[in-house]
Design goal:
Layout: H1 4-10, H2 22-30, H3 33-45, H4 51-76, H5 84-97, H6 102-115, E1 130-131, H7 132-136, H8 140-149, H9 152-166, H10 177-201, H11 203-229, H12 244-251, E2 254-256, H13 259-264, H14 271-276, H15 285-290, E3 300-302, H16 303-308, E4 314-316, E5 321-323, H17 325-331
Parallel strand pairs: 1-4, 2-3
Antiparallel strand pairs: 4-5
Length: 341
């Protein structure tokens, strides 16, 4: 359900953009999953004599896999089609391709939208972020673990493996039955299809064709999610001061990418529009931004500026900014006797 503060802003202007067009929605699918699967087949055909070509093809394949994920993401928000059933059906199919159990991911991502920027409700769908004071209170091991987790090599290197390949495969008893069934159903489908492909072309061949594009796409996806909420003037508030619309407009960046990258990322860089009204299909985000002044004074990042945000690690509640470890150390010396975590 829409938050009350969002309703006041969206009713006069935004609902017109939240109307999916079946033809355009179908085109989004055709221009994402079809090129990805075609390039995967071409990568297989170039093996055994043109391995450099195979690896080079992994780059555009990764781009189309990212685009496929954005289409899946639109289905999870119910924004790609007017029918909830069609969104769920298409979402499950695309979720299989991007390794995400549809129902579980849809649930967790909805929590992210409902809690983004709320300091008391961190942890679901977020890049883990500590405040400066929380970091100070951690033990040496706790600080080291946080530093490792926020290290770009870990976040964008191991991150895709843990977040996209391992984590979504795990079903627990604490999950609701529908979430657990979503995980197990996706796992069984993957086991059957991947097992069949490995039997057909061999395990090593399958990994060579699938893994490079999957890892590149996973790294790009995590980076995109990172820069959409992790920038210097991001928005984090305690519950008493938290507001849904402010979290969307101040806590979600407008990542201005070159047109070719905007295509591959499904315009998800217009994240401020998406967070204010998640029912707007990705192909309407740019138009909604251009035609509404409310979006013209939001945090804007160029590609270069976005790359620089990886140095920001901690939320400084005093300054209301995301800061680096060095800035935190300079502004707020570490405690000599930290409290064990």
């Amino acid at each position: 359900m829409a938050h009350p503060s969002m309703r006041r802003l969206e009713r006069p202007t935004l609902t017109v953009y939240a109307q999916p067009r079946p033809g355009r929605s179908a085109l989004e699918i055709v221009t994402s999953i079809v090129p990805y699967l075609s390039l995967s087949v071409l990568m297989y055909l170039t093996l055994g004599g043109a391995e450099l070509v195979t690896l080079a093809l992994a780059i555009p394949a990764a781009g189309f896999l990212v685009r496929t994920f954005v289409v899946f993401h639109d289905c999870a928000h119910g924004s790609l089609w007017s029918s909830k059933r069609v969104n769920a059906y298409v979402g499950r199919v695309l979720g299989f391709v991007v390794l995400c159990p549809y129902q579980r991911w849809r649930h967790d991502h909805a929590i992210h939208h409902a809690t983004s920027g709320d300091l008391e409700r961190r942890g679901v769908g977020d890049i883990i972020t500590l405040t400066v004071s929380e970091y100070r209170l951690r033990s040496f091991r706790g600080r080291l673990a946080y530093r490792l987790m926020r290290n770009p090599l870990v976040m964008f290197g191991l991150g895709p493996i843990l977040a996209m390949m391992v984590g979504p495969r795990i079903a627990t008893r604490s999950q609701r039955p529908r979430m657990r069934h979503s995980v197990l159903g996706t796992d069984l489908a993957l086991l059957a299809v991947v097992g069949g492909l490995c039997a057909l072309i061999g395990f090593e061949t399958f990994l060579i064709v699938w893994m490079p594009a999957a890892l590149l796409a996973g790294s790009a996806g995590i980076w995109l999610f990172y820069v959409q909420h992790q920038f210097e003037d991001a928005y984090w508030q305690r519950p008493a001061d938290w507001d849904y619309a402010d979290a969307a407009l101040r806590g979600s960046s407008y990542l201005k990418l070159p047109k070719i990258l905007q295509f591959f990322t499904g315009s998800i860089g217009l994240h401020h529009v998406h967070h204010l009204n998640a029912r707007i299909p990705s192909y309407n985000l740019q138009r909604a931004h251009d035609e509404n002044k409310i979006f013209h004074d939001v945090p804007t990042l160029s590609l270069w500026a976005a790359l620089q945000t990886v140095k920001l690690k901690l939320w400084d509640e005093d300054s209301g900014k995301l800061v680096s470890f060095a800035q935190a150390r300079h502004g707020l010396p570490m405690s000599a006797s930290p409290v064990p975590q």
